[in-house]
Structure formats: structure tokens, C-alpha cells
Amino acid sequence: MVRRIRKQREAADGIHLDASPVFHVGGDLRPLSSPELSTIVAHAFDILSTVGMVGLPKVATQRALESGAWHRADGRLCFSKNMIRNALERAPRHVTLPGFTPDRDLQIGGRRVHIGTGGAAVQVLNAATGDYQDSQLSDLYDLMRVLDASSNIHYGVRPVVARDISDPLELDVNTAFACLKATTKPIGISFCDPDHIDPIVEMFDIALGYQGAFRDRPFCMAVIVHVVPPLTYAAEGIVMLEKAVRAGMVPQICSAGQAGATSPVTLAGALAQGLAECLAGMVVVENIQRSAPCIYALMPFISDLRTGAMSGGSGEAAIANAAAAQLLSHVGLPSTVSAGMTDSKLVDAQAGYEKGYTVALAGHAGADMINLSVGMLGSIMVASPEAMVIDDDMCGAILRSIRGIEVSKATLDLEAVERVVTHDGHYLGESETLNRMKSDYHYPALADRQSVSDWVDAGSLSIWEQARSRVPEILAAPPPTHLSADAEARIRAKFPIRLKP
């Protein structure tokens, strides 16, 4: 911990930063020891070389066989350990994830911690009435507008489904457009059908200004479920994966087994199976395009074994996803894990503590991307813009904690101690105090730090009440202008855009 600042300035890939770091490097939290990491990785290799996978489409299967895979007598497709190791050596350890504008670009890999949205919530919490309502396209746009204004949220994977659109192509096109229009940060969407990828890439080209522009600046990830645990390829997901890679999209492929249901009940077993499923996806990506950029989401979901329901806010989910980040870093793959998936249906104390420890553990373990971490309630079935602005506040504090403590001659100044104790008796007037007021300290936007009497005099506002005021302020502000009026008009003329101008 004491050398964290230096480690950030000399990041995992050797980049030297003269100024204060603009990202935060995790990895000091190690839920698994080195021998335990090696044991789980070896078990994942054994799973692929002995149990294997099923469900890979014919063309992808042929490529795998030509690369050294083989079929068991029962038809399961197995991969040799050398085949997996060779693919790992070729797979990029770092992936550039562009924003719509270069100032929003992210470098994924090397345990740089980035926090984002995700999921496919089907309801939103109405802050005025407390009711849960079906999510609509306008809700998606508003959530992404709030995300754009949230300084501690780095990217936006579609958080809700626009349930007011039933046609699958229109749903995918409008989801992509709403995310594109609302923010310049990197975005991510999924697809109802592989054939929807090409027209959406065409829309992105129009937005950027020329044919082929998206290939130069692929600001939108393709979020793809490539496996259906246990150890079964999702055939349509594999077709989407190939289409996305060929189109120049950065895929984020996902294994999300549920411990005790679709993955082993033991956390070690769930992690090993999930890692095997990620590695099985890596082999497919490598066979589509050698050294293609890809981000790997290992999301060990947890069941409440009393009911079978998913428990996103559990302590088991927190430590399992922290370990998942550690495992992917250990094998050298850009990582995504899940955190912040509170089981609470309200923005309450339960939501706060479940989000707090799950996101903090994932970040301190060095997750490159933390999906599902902000704005979500009810085990990712409900989204709330008010929850998102509160979570943004929380994430600022968590990122500051990941940054750690600088130990150097500058921070351990004996002359300053001598000067203060023999003169003023306090450090308030020291130039170092003023200089480091902003560089070393994080100040929340919503969390209250007043005295009790001052808080009462100011109206005794809870953080929920402050969030309810903050969201309308964001939505009333001028929207982003990165999408030109001409480009938007061309998109609206060509595609069935439902979002009101």
C-alpha cells in the first residue's frame, strides 16, 4: 500500500505519468494466494481438456479443430492445455476502449479500475411516487445523461431495456442511438440478432462523420453472452461475436454462472468453471481474428440457497468477484466483474452497505471494469437515476481509497513538523496543506459533512432528497452536443428512431 502512488505513476505496462494519475490501479487486495491461483487455473485447464464444451456452431468448431481441439467420444469439444496457453500468449493484455471523443478514451488492462453501468433492468423506480414502472426508451436516455454527468462513472453499458419498443431491430437501433446521443463516454450494448450489428455500425459511422469511422474509433462495445453455463456455448452469441469482431467492435464476452445452480456451489469451483468458460471464449476470438481485442467478464453470481434467488449484494458475491478480477489479471486478460448489485429494492441502508463493500472489494482487487455497479436496485431488475448519482458519490470515495497513501520524502517532512510545533501549533497555514487540499483529498458532491445543527438549519435533507433534486438539474442542463445536427438528421432519416428530438 505504501508504494501505491509510485505504482500508479509507473503503471502495470510501464507508462510513466509526471502528473497526478488520472486512473486508479488496484490489486493490493488478494483474496487468493499464489498457490490457490495456480490451483484454480490448473483446474480450469483440466475442465477444458477433459470435460470440454458443447454447442459451438459448425464453422467455429472447424476452426477450433484445425487449431488443435478434438472431440470426445460423446461429441464434447476439448482443448489441449498448450492450445490454451498459446492463445493466452497472443491475446492482448490491454485494450483501448475509445469514447466518442478522445478525452473519454479508456485503457482497459493492467488493473486500472473503471466503474460503469450494465444489466438489462426491466423497471425503473419513480422517485416521486415510489412506484416501479416498466422501463422505456426515455428512461434509458435519462440514465445515460446522468451517467455522462457523473465524474466517477467511466463508461455506460445499457442499464435498462426499452420495453415500449417490441420490434427487435427497432429496439437495438434505438438503444444504440439513445446511448450514443446521451454521452461521449464509451458505451456498450447487446443485440437481439446478429444481423442487427451491421446497420448499427453504419449508424455509428454516420454519427462519426464518414464510412469506416467506427472501425477507427469503436466507442461502443458489443456485450455478448458467449456461454450458457455450465460449459455450453451460446450458439447465437458465438455468431454475434464473429460479426462484432469482423465489424471492428470490441467485444465484452461474459460468463455468469450462478453458484449452486449453473456452476458449482463452492466458490472455488464456480470460479474455475467460469474461468474455463472465459478461456473457451478466448479460443473462439483468437480463431476469428488473431490477437483481436476482447474484454473478459467473469461474473460469479451467487444464489441464496434457501430460495434459489440470485443474491447480488451478498458477501459471497463480493469476495467471489474480487477473486474473479484477481484470476483474470493472473492469466493476463482484461477483466470485467460485477458489483453493486444490491438486493434492496430501495435506496436505503441495505443498498448502501451492499453496494459499498462489493464495489470496494472489486476495485481493490484490481478489476479493470466493474459492471452493474451503479444505479441498480432489486438484484439488477430495477434502475434509478437517483441511485446512480448517489452511487457516483460512493464511487468517488472508493476510487480515492484505491489510490492509497503516498509515502515519500515530500509526505514525511521533518522540517515541517519542527516548524509547526515550534511556531503556530497547527498545519492550517502550511503551503503544503493548501497545495494538497485538492490533489490528495476527495470531496463528495451529495454526502453531508455539516454539523448536526447546520444540517438541521439547512433543511435536514437526506441524501435521497438531495439526489431527487440533483437528477432534474442534470436533465435540465443542455445535453451533450457531440452528435451534430446534420448527423442526427441523417440517422433519423435512415433509421426508425423513436427518441424525441
Automatic annotation (TrEMBL):
Keywords: Methyltransferase, Transferase. One of its GO terms (molecular function) is methyltransferase activity. The keyword Hydrolase does not apply. It holds the Pfam family MTTB. GO terms for biological process: methylation. Belongs to the trimethylamine methyltransferase family. This is Trimethylamine methyltransferase family protein. It comes from Ruegeria haliotis.
